[in-house]
Specification:
The chain has 337 residues and is an alpha/beta fold. The protein is built from 10 helices and 14 strands. The protein has 2 domains: 2-63, Phospho-2-dehydro-3-deoxyheptonate aldolase, domain 1 (Alpha-Beta Plaits, 2-Layer Sandwich); 83-336, TIM Barrel. The strands form 3 sheets. An 8-stranded parallel beta barrel has the order 7-8-9-10-11-12-13-14, surrounded by 5 helices. It has a 4-stranded antiparallel sheet with strand order 2-3-1-4. The chain has a two-stranded antiparallel sheet with strand order 5-6. It is elongated. The two termini are 32 Å apart. Bound molecules: phosphoenolpyruvate (PEP) and manganese (II) ion (MN). Residues 103, 272, 298, 308-309 line the site of manganese (II) ion.
């Protein structure tokens, strides 16, 4: 971090600033020029509040050289992280993970039938929303606690780990038998929730916010990791742009950007990214080619009658075909990464 001081910086204020910086355990290199004085900070500056520095009278500008995230940073952890989900499933380098299931859990039969189908096609994790973040309060809000019970039933009957979304901290006790807790796009910056999930020992699927930058996504991952839970899986699910032809715009470049910046696994959600069932296949294949570690796909056995997101849900038959194609493509490109 580089701090440029104002020309007329008061000596007492400067000494005070240096004392404060020393207490943050960073080394200070001072360069005193005829026009301005610069402080170069060496060491871990991730816990220094840049806005606080910028607000000081004697400071002209501050430039961060190092990223503000540490635990998620590949610089401090060069090897790719592989997250153990349990039940023999891992997510991260060396394998391509397919997570599939309906947008929402609707009934015991629906979730168990889809679980059986997607497992037979090669999915190793079942998705299904119980608590649904809906734009309208009049839309189906999910089966809530009962939805989690039905997912657990599918998990036991079919033998497949489950991922489902938490919307509020008060729901956490219901997630004991959930294998991966999803933090949805709308909660990516619910910092109290992230902090609480940092204190538990369970994989977290963190989805990128609708208008969040990649750095903001990584800072949210950092919130979880700073608490001690380093089992974070990142998910790009499309961002808001001016384009309206698709529900969101799938930022596939997030895959190579994230791969450079972090060691955490990165998966793609082509369903929420495009909002169109026919677009799920091409964007899934593109995600494989871009170097993603997996996909999370909405699959429904009766899309026209789905209680949520039917327009973007593919059928088990389409998923089966896609899973085969993804496997073929992954085998062709995996040595390239
Ligand atoms: C979901 O996966 O069901 C979901 C609501 O996704 P997102 O948070 O990405 O909108
Ligand atoms: Mn959905």
């Amino acid at each position: 971090m580089i701090i440029v001081l104002r020309k007329d910086a008061d000596k007492a204020q400067l000494d005070h600033l240096k004392d404060w910086l020393n207490s943050k355990e960073v080394e200070i290199e001072q360069i005193t020029g005829s026009q301005s004085t610069v402080l170069g900070l060496v060491g871990d500056t991730s816990h220094i509040d840049i806005e606080l520095l910028e607000a000081l009278d004697i400071v002209e500008s501050v430039k961060r050289i190092q990223e503000p995230y540490k635990k998620a940073n590949r610089k401090f952890h060069p090897a790719d992280s592989v997250i153990d989900i349990g039940h023999g499933v891992k997510i991260g380098k060396g394998r391509f993970t397919l997570i599939a299931g309906p947008c929402s859990v609707e009934s015991e039969k629906q979730i168990c039938d889809i679980a059986r189908d997607v497992k037979a096609s090669g999915a190793t994790v079942l998705r299904g929303g119980a608590f649904k973040p809906r734009t309208s309060p009049y839309s189906f809000q999910g089966l809530r606690a009962n939805g989690i019970e039905l997912l657990q039933e599918a998990k036991e009957k079919v033998g497949i780990p489950i991922v489902t979304e938490i919307m509020d901290l008060s729901q956490l006790p219901l997630f004991d038998n959930v294998d991966i807790i999803q933090v949805g796009a709308r909660n990516m910056q619910n910092f109290e929730l992230l902090k609480a999930l940092g204190k538990i020992d369970k994989p977290i699927l963190l989805k990128r916010g609708l208008s969040a930058t990649i750095q903001e996504l990584l800072m949210s991952a950092e919130y979880i990791m700073a608490g001690g839970n380093e089992k974070v899986i990142l998910c790009e699910r499309g961002i808001r742009t001016f384009e309206t032809a698709t529900r969101n715009t799938l930022d596939l470049s997030a895959v190579p950007v994230l791969k450079e910046k972090t060691h955490l696994p990165v998966i793609i959600d082509p369903s929420h990214a495009t909002g169109i069932a026919a677009m799920v296949k091409p964007m899934s294949l593109a995600a494989v080619a871009a170097g993603a570690d997996g996909l999370i796909i909405e699959v429904h056995n009766d899309p026209p009658h789905a209680l949520c997101d039917g327009q973007q849900s593919i059928t088990p038959k389409m998923f089966d075909e896609l899973a085969g194609q993804v496997g073929t493509l992954y085998n062709a490109v995996k040595e390239m990464y």
